[in-house]
Amino acid sequence: MKQEILTALEERVVTRIREGTDELVSLVTELVACDTTARDPGDPPRDEVKLQQVLAARLRALGADVELFEPEPIAAGHSPTIPFDLDFGGRPQLVATLRGAGGGRSLVLNGHIDAVTPGDASRWSSDPFKAEIREGHVYGRGTCDMKGGIADFLFALECLAREGVRLAGDVTFCTNTDEESSGAGGLALVAHGVRGDAGLCAEPSGFDAWVACRGYLIFTVTITGTMLPGASKGCWWSGRSRQSSRSRRMAPRMGSRRSMALTAPPSRQCGAGISA
Ligand SMILES: [Zn+2]
């Protein structure tokens, strides 16, 4: 079996990362303390600005060109997952570029700063916004998805800089809002011009490197029929039986689609909206 041998420089970087565990955990704790729970259009801002400013300050200290900006709203109809009235007021996106020495390929490091709701606080064994270290694990809302990964990216760049490493290609570190809710933040970054020859996303993957992920397809089926009261005996929509039979015909085909070797098998989700 081929044995990986690190160069002396690589060894120093790895050692610095290993010895910096406390500093890394401290950064994760600082990010978790920012309440960036995903929110609906019209909800007041949370701590999105505060969190992005924590990252921006450290990135500026590394010599990065940092942009912190509130994009224009994503145009209505751009994606069916994005509410038409969503805007980025109080939800800035961050793009920081570390210029390479030249002649190398560029790399994008991306993560989302929003986290899903902590839900019922009484079911937490500790404050979800006050990270606790227990038995070698950090507990707090968003630690895994994905403030831990964002902190990893930043800390890795800091360790490289402390060892005097300047990569050949540019590195773009970018963090966005609105991933959990709609995907609008990621689209805003692309619209802003974020590009790279390769990219790493800090989405949790069980410490495996995933080289591909599933996409999704959203479609709307319009059924013409006569609406009936929900309590009616039999169908509540005269078109339903037709829709059901169509769904039944589609379902096996979607489920049996050959799964890509690098991704999980396909899955289906179904939602219903009625306009009368
Ligand atoms: Zn995530």
CATH fold label of the largest domain? Aminopeptidase
Q: Determine the number of helices (DSSP H or I, runs of at least 4 residues).
A: 6
Average pLDDT reading: 86
* Number of E-state strands: 7
Bound molecules: zinc ion
Please, how many domains?
2
CATH homologous superfamily (4th level) name of the largest domain? Zn peptidases
In quaternary terms, these chains amount to single chain
CATH architecture label name of the largest domain? 3-Layer(aba) Sandwich
- What's the end-to-end separation, in Å? 66 Å
Strand order of the largest sheet: 1-2-6-3-7
User: In one word, what is the shape?
Assistant: globular
Task: Please identify the structural class as seen in this structure.
Answer: alpha/beta
The major pleated sheet works out as: 5 strands, mixed
Query: Roughly what percent helix?
Result: 25-40%
Strand content: 5-15%
Please characterize this protein's 3D structure.
- With 276 residues, the chain is an alpha/beta fold.
- The protein folds into two domains: 8-201, Zn peptidases (Aminopeptidase); 221-276, no CATH class.
- It has helices spanning 8-19, 21-32, 48-61, 143-162, 184-192, 240-255; strands spanning 65-69, 93-98, 107-112, 132-134, 137-139, 171-176, 198-201.
- Mean pLDDT is 86; it is low at 238-243.
- Bound molecules: zinc ion.
- Zinc ion binds at residues 112, 145-146, 179, 203.
